[in-house]
Design a protein that fits this description.
The complex is a heterodimer. Chain A contains 12 helices and 10 strands. By secondary structure, chain A is α/β, with parallel strands linked by helices. The radius of gyration of chain B is 22 Å and the shape is globular. Chain B starts with a helix and ends with a helix. Classes of the chains: A alpha/beta, B mainly alpha. Chains A and B meet through helix 2, strand 2, helix 3, strand 7 and helix 7 of A and helix 3, strand 1, helix 15 and helix 20 of B.
Chain lengths: 335, 501
């Protein structure tokens, strides 16, 4: 460009303008590369949002909030739980499946919803549409329960009675979820012949049992513990693989029918494409809280008879895959 | 004196911090209740996590204060704006708004506030005295009873339809149809979702209601905003005492007791909620009145019926929550969560294991109802000022708040489109002179009827004689048949008279 070339005034401004735009573009590009949001090195550099797939007041929400509160202390940034509810978590999962994988958005849910929705066809994708961060807690177990005045003293007796008089013993379930899966398994693997009646969520199933609208049902231990202590309700067995440490006397359902195992787990997921280093860092933070924070242990013990139980990324994936396999085996009955 | 009662009493009534929490809780609840789009449920949702770190008595006191304030606050916008602040105050609009239009807004508010208070007290009274017994009765309600009760309540459509029964039925059926969108009860089949995942959650009552009432009201105003009509509201700000006379109070005693009983009854039965209780008691008041034709023109009986019942439902809903651990509606479900976090497990052992907390809750509810009375009467003058705000400023704000409320309920923008949709539906129906109220009944009761009908048909198939073992259900079915028959006969006669003369 010659030195004595005269720019028109407009042309000069135009060039200046383009130069400024160019500089801004370069600055943006550089900051994009170096921006801490996507790099794991100085993660977390800003507030983290955690989408909770179920409403306030429930167990999924409680576990998520407790973890968020302690993560906040540990990570030094705000960890904000947001409840996005509806359709057993399917709405939240669909919305955040394609969220920005910037390492500051996560989803916390439970596995009965996560995998159950896929098996029942409510969601057309599963946990593999996300990066699995962790399986970070385990519920204290769904329990087979009857009223204390019921003639059935063991799970074996209850199953036998249903086979002896098909379609007379009323069994309360809720279609689609983990309890429904358990009822399908006992029908196919243990040959039970209950009159299956849909009574809705755990509190409604408990109501139905107390009102004698059903003879037996499955509810989480926390829902029925008061009635068990008061001697009004009898638990015939837990669906956990082994009895929880805090409730060693509860019989295990899989001793009657080996396939009757249902662990309700709480899982944390990240949008697909989230930096694996961030996933590992968050997982490590959660495991540290679960293993070393006395407040965490005290809270989960008290709230729901839970023991701290958090898996590594690898173990979490394996656990989810195992559960998915179980659900998918029966998916034709779930749809 | 019972030491648990004393501990419960002192932990609430003599602790200034707890009293402050109750007072603030009621005030915040009233704000949530009175703002269209924000509800008592949302107030409790928002503050529940904050109570996790409080002591049990602090946390639960805050939550019940929010609950009581929120349910009562709905009457303010129902009367002043003809928009129910919460689903529980739908029926308060029917006579509250005409009274406000006649220039009696203060009186309508005064009555609403006072009978809200009375309703709460009666509900809490029943809760304290006969809680466990009633709870045992409530769980006897199974599919047959709920099915019959839903059918009976649906027959109220006749009374709420006005002159034109056909239009009322169209409205009710439309309501039931909107409620079918989403996952079907029992088998979770997707209906009318068109493969769109947002629709699988269906339309929420909140979205449906604020669309129908608030947004359609705004559209209606927008339609005539360019015309020269001027609305003058002669607002008589002066009120002496409570705004109504002792004679008027005496005339409402029967109405109050009936409405409170309906409210408590609906509250005890899980899964029905305040929206139904206010409409049922309104209809009951209308049907048993000497001059039912005056209902809807702005008489105090209508406000008394609605406000007594919806607040009495609070005490009712606490009964199965505390003595059985069974939550009857969205708010009590969250209260259950709040209790469990503090290791207070509602159920048969609650009086043995957590008696001080239970008595504390009773005391907190009583204090909250007095706080509600005081705050709302002090705020009365302030509330009526809303009428002086030009509508072209007020309505956009309302639309914004409605959107915030709709989105905030489950954190999805989809619900904002939902209220717009129902706003247009409401506007269309108003144009066609189809009453909106039966649609609300259809929307709430349709799913309840469907769910229980499906359960009943399963039970009936297993054992046809099972129906004969359900006397309560049989009575409800018979009463429904009689009500429908009498109404149809009256309708035919009225039509014959009109055409005959």
């Amino acid at each position: 460009m010659s030195k004595n070339h005269h720019f028109g005034k407009g042309e000069f401004l135009m060039k200046k303008f383009l130069a400024v735009i160019g500089l801004i573009a370069i600055a943006l590009a550089v900051s994009g590369v170096l921006h801490p949001a996507h790099a794991a090195g100085n993660w977390p550099g800003k507030n983290i949002t955690v989408i909770v797939t179920h409403g306030a007041g429930g167990d999924t929400d409680y576990n998520a909030r407790l973890m968020c509160r302690l993560l906040e202390k540990k990570l030094g940034v705000s960890v904000v739980p947001v409840n996005v509810t509806g359709s057993n978590g399917a709405i939240a999962m669909a919305q955040y499946k394609d969220a920005n994988p910037d390492g500051y958005t996560f989803v916390m849910t439970n596995t009965a919803a996560l995998i159950g929705n896929e098996a029942s066809g409510l969601s057309d994708f599963g946990f593999d549409a996300f990066e699995v961060v962790s399986v970070y807690a385990k519920q204290s177990g769904e329990n087979f329960v009857v009223m204390s005045d019921s003639p059935h003293r063991t799970l074996e007796e209850l199953f036998e009675a249903s086979r002896a008089k098909p379609n007379t013993i009323k069994f309360g379930i809720s279609t689609g979820g983990g309890v429904y899966l358990a009822s399908v398994i006992m029908e196919h693997a243990a040959g039970t012949k209950f009159a299956i009646i849909d009574e809705g969520d755990a509190a409604s199933r408990m109501t139905a049992l107390l009102g004698k609208h059903v003879d037996a049902t499955i509810v989480p231990y926390a829902v029925t513990k008061e009635y068990i202590q008061a001697g009004q309700v009898r638990t015939l067995g837990t669906l956990l693989r082994e009895a929880p440490a805090l409730l060693p006397d509860v019989p295990v359902a899989n001793s009657v029918c080996p396939e009757l195992v249902l662990n309700t787990l709480y899982a944390c997921l990240a949008p697909k494409g989230t930096n694996p280093a961030i996933v590992e860092a968050l997982n490590a933070a959660m495991r540290d809280i679960s293993q070393n924070d006395p407040e965490y242990k005290a809270e989960v013990n008290r709230y729901n008879f839970q023991e701290p139980w958090t898996l590594t990324v690898e173990e979490s994936l394996a656990e989810l895959r195992g559960q998915r396999e179980l659900f998918m085996k029966y998916s034709e009955y779930l749809q | 004196m019972d030491s648990a009662l004393w501990t419960g009493f002192t932990s609430v009534a003599l602790d200034p911090f707890v009293l402050l929490l109750i007072f603030c809780g009621v005030a915040v609840g009233i704000v949530f209740g009175s703002v269209p789009g924000l509800t008592a449920t949302m107030a409790v949702v928002m503050f529940l996590p904050m109570t996790y770190t409080m002591t049990s008595i602090q946390g639960i006191s805050t939550l019940v204060a929010l609950y009581i304030g929120g349910i009562s606050g709905g009457l303010i916008s129902a009367i002043l704006l003809n928009i129910p602040g919460t689903p529980s105050s739908v029926a308060t609009c029917f006579d509250g708004s005409p009274m406000a239009k006649k220039g009696q807004a203060s009186k309508a508010l005064g009555i609403g506030i006072f009978f809200s208070f009375l309703g709460t007290l009666l509900g809490v009274g029943v809760l304290v005295v006969v809680s466990p017994m009633l709870a045992q009765f409530a769980i006897k309600f199974g599919a047959y009873e709920y099915c019959a009760l839903a059918l009976f309540s649906l027959s109220m459509v006749i009374a709420l339809s006005g002159r034109d029964l056909t239009k009322g039925l169209i409205s009710a059926i439309l309501g039931a149809v909107w409620a079918t969108v989403g996952l079907a009860p029992i088998d979770s089949r997707a209906r009318y979702t068109f493969g769109y995942v947002e629709l699988t959650a269906g339309f929420k009552l909140l979205v449906f209601l604020i669309g129908l009432f608030a947004i359609s009201e705004v559209i209606r105003y927008a339609e005539k905003v360019r015309s020269d009509e001027h609305y003058e509201i002669q607002e008589n700000v002066h009120i002496g005492g409570l705004g109504f006379t002792f004679k008027e109070f005496c005339s409402q005693i029967g109405n109050t007791i009936r409405s409170a009983l309906i409210g408590i009854g609906i509250g005890i039965l899980p899964g029905i909620g305040g929206g139904v209780s206010c409409m049922l008691s309104y209809t009951a008041a209308k049907n048993s009145s000497k001059d039912p034709e005056k209902f809807g023109t702005g008489i105090i009986d209508g406000i008394v019926a609605s406000e007594t019942a919806n607040n009495a439902s609070i005490g009712g809903a606490m009964i199965p929550l505390l003595s059985l651990g069974i939550p009857g509606d969205a708010v009590t479900a969250m209260l259950l969560g709040g209790l469990m976090v503090h290791n207070v497990a509602p159920g048969p052992l609650i009086f043995d294991k957590s008696a001080p907390v239970v008595y504390g809750i009773f005391i907190a509810m009583l204090i909250a109802s007095f706080a509600m009375l005081v705050i709302e009467f002090l705020g009365l003058r302030l509330f009526t000022k809303v009428l002086k705000v030009p509508k072209n400023y007020l309505l956009p704000i309302i639309v914004m708040l409605c959107c915030v409320g709709a989105i905030g309920d489950s954190n999805r923008v989809f619900d904002a489109w939902g209220i717009l949709f129902f706003g247009l539906v409401g506007f269309g129906l108003i144009k066609a002179a189809i009453p909106l109220t039966p649609m609300i009944l259809g929307f709430i009761l349709g799913p309840m009827f469907e769910l229980n009908l499906r359960k009943v048909s399963q039970l009936f198939r297993m054992n046809p004689l099972s129906f004969m073992e359900r006397p309560i259900a049989i009575v409800f079915f018979l009463v429904t048949a009689v009500v429908v028959f009498l109404n149809i006969r009256a309708n035919i006669r009225a039509n014959a008279q009109r055409t005959g003369v």
